[in-house]
Amino acid sequence: MIYDVSVPITATMPVWPSDPSVKLRPEAHISRDKSHTVRVTKIEMGSHTGTHIDAPWHMVENGRRLNQIPIETLVGPASVLEIPNVPSIGRADLERLSFAGIERVLFKTENSGHWNDGKFYEQFVYLEPEAAEFLVEQGIKLVGIDYLSIDKFKSEQHPSHFVLLTRNVVIVEGLNLSQVSPGKYQMMALPLNLQDVDGAPTRIILSD
């Protein structure tokens, strides 16, 4: 079974309040022989639109750019861990779980149920910095969460970002895991092949 856990990109999708909105502008012209219409869409959006990857350079001075992340980090086994009924994911929530053999972890929370709210969901579940530090201690190299930031809304210092990105742990944000059960999967996360950037929209599929 193959699961697409990336959110559709539309002009009405929720985006981070300070990020550029999505604009999909259809344009067209008649072919040279006037036999048909050629359609092209002009696309405007931020690099952290929808399901996306944060490269370290997103917040870390002189950090890795997107194209410097090894593709092997973005493809391979991944574990979906469900953390229900919490406002945030803390270290204690993770210490009771086993991370043996896990290199990539995707957190499923109540966030996945809010993609169809029609507006940005401010009370999303986030990852506490102590929990991020625990993941680094376990040797995790990719961490995903099912809304648009791994840090708390209106966080000023972005502590969980810095815990992970300064250690070159890839952050994936904006997942929709509502149709995926907890468990082990094969993951393929392919961002747009943009050079020297801080992140990019990413199509992510899981297979079991």
Name the shape in a single word: globular
Strand content: 25-35%
Rg of Cα set: 18 Å
CATH architecture: 3-Layer(bba) Sandwich
Number of domains: 1
As for the CATH topology, it is Glucose Oxidase, domain 1
Q: End-to-end distance, in Å?
A: 6 Å
Q: Regarding CATH, which class?
A: Alpha Beta
The number of helical segments is 4
Kindly report the average pLDDT value: 97
**Can you summarize the main beta sheet?**
7 strands, mixed, barrel
Kindly state the number of beta strands.
Answer: 12
CATH superfamily: Putative cyclase
Physical arrangement of strands within the biggest beta sheet: 4-10-9-7-5-11-12
- Give the low-pLDDT segments: none
The structure class reads: mainly beta
Helix content: 10-25%
Helices and strands, in order, run as EEEEHEEHEEHEHEEE
Write the layout of secondary structure elements.
Elements: E1 2-4, E2 23-30, E3 37-44, E4 52-54, H1 71-74, E5 75-82, E6 88-89, H2 91-95, E7 104-108, E8 126-127, H3 129-137, E9 142-145, H4 159-165, E10 170-173, E11 183-191, E12 199-207
Parallel strand pairs: 5-7, 6-8, 7-9, 9-10
Antiparallel strand pairs: 1-12, 2-3, 4-10, 4-12, 5-11, 11-12
Helix pairs in contact: 3-4
3D architecture notes:
The protein has 208 residues and is mainly beta. It has a single domain (2-8, 47-207), classed as Putative cyclase (Glucose Oxidase, domain 1), CATH 3.50.30.50. It is built from 4 helices and 12 strands, in the order ββββαββαββαβαβββ. The protein has helices at residues 71-74, 91-95, 129-137, 159-165; strands at residues 2-4, 23-30, 37-44, 52-54, 75-82, 88-89, 104-108, 126-127, 142-145, 170-173, 183-191, 199-207. The strands form 3 sheets. Strands 4-10-9-7-5-11-12 form a 7-stranded mixed beta barrel. Strands 2-3 form a two-stranded antiparallel sheet. Strands 6-8 form a two-stranded parallel sheet. Strand 11 and strand 12 form a beta hairpin. Helix 3 packs parallel to helix 4 (159-165). The protein starts with a strand and ends with a strand. The relative contact order is 0.25. The model has no long low-confidence stretch (mean pLDDT 97).
